[in-house]
């Protein structure tokens, strides 16, 4: 349960990034995340995640990545509800890392990413570099204990995708970004960047 009193809810905003920002290189301990989606429909999802310090060499298959994470891995299982206005129900519970690893290694719909963390102004940000079928996708996220309003958006954020279901991990697990990356880039060039305007005043 969050310290804000909102219980099992997360408050985040998400942005598409074209190139890995230099601030990512300052993170001394990036994290490898391998997560499987056991169920995903109509905005609801059940996820099993294994994460730990990113190894120098990354294998191509989930089973190899699970093995590479080793004894320092952390396992979780999460139930998610539909998102609205930067808010989403998310109940996360610890899971034995060995059990989590065995589930992820056997799952059909898996997302793999390396996560970099950075503190920018008053907010903590993460930049996710997706691997496998979702390469070369880069997404930046900011999360707070309450609604993410009056946000200072760093220059590496090209456009906001907080309300674009295509960029939810459960969608990426079934429809990898690599399959529709060119279509999305053409769409972005045609329509231009967009940012949510209902969460206070955006600052750039």
Automatic annotation (TrEMBL):
Annotated InterPro entries: CYTH-like_dom_sf, CYTH_domain, NeuTTM/CthTTM-like
Domain CYTH: 8-174
Active-site annotation: 37 (proton acceptor)
Lineage top rank: taxon: Bacteria
Protein's name in the database: CYTH domain-containing protein
Organism of this sequence: Mycolicibacterium chubuense (strain NBB4)
